[in-house]
Amino acid sequence: MVEKSDVAAVLELIRPSLQADGGDVQLVDVSEDGVVTVELQGACKGCPMSQMTLANGVERILKDRVPGVTSVVPADL
């Protein structure tokens, strides 16, 4: 099972790069099967590149650093 605190700690490492572009990310939930739900905020929320940010940035880093993370999905789906 993925610990929510582990995911939150890694998101804190990612957050400064998103904030540098006027965006942010907030952890919403972590399911028992490793699906992390996040809410993109600020400039990231309406950005056409937000899916790439999730897949190539947030998801890739979380999968690399937190064992058991299977995917990252936006809260608004």
User: Alpha-carbon distance between the termini?
Assistant: 23 Å
Q: Mean pLDDT score, rounded?
A: 92
Indicate the structural class.
alpha+beta
Q: Please tally the helical runs, counting DSSP H or I stretches of 4 or more residues.
A: 3
Largest sheet: 3 strands, mixed
Radius of gyration: 11 Å
Overall 3D shape: globular
Taken in chain order, the helices and strands follow as HEEHHE
* Beta fraction: 25-35%
Describe the structure.
- The structure is a single chain.
- It is globular, with a radius of gyration of 11 Å.
- The mean pLDDT is 92.
- The protein is built from three helices and three strands.
- The protein has 77 residues and is α+β, with helices and mostly antiparallel strands.
Strand and helix map with partners:
Elements lengths: L3 H17 L2 E8 L4 E8 H4 L3 H16 L5 E4 L3
Parallel strand pairs: 2-3
Antiparallel strand pairs: 1-2
Helix pairs in contact: 1-3
Label this structure with key terms:
about 80 residues, alpha+beta, 3-stranded mixed sheet, 3 helices, globular
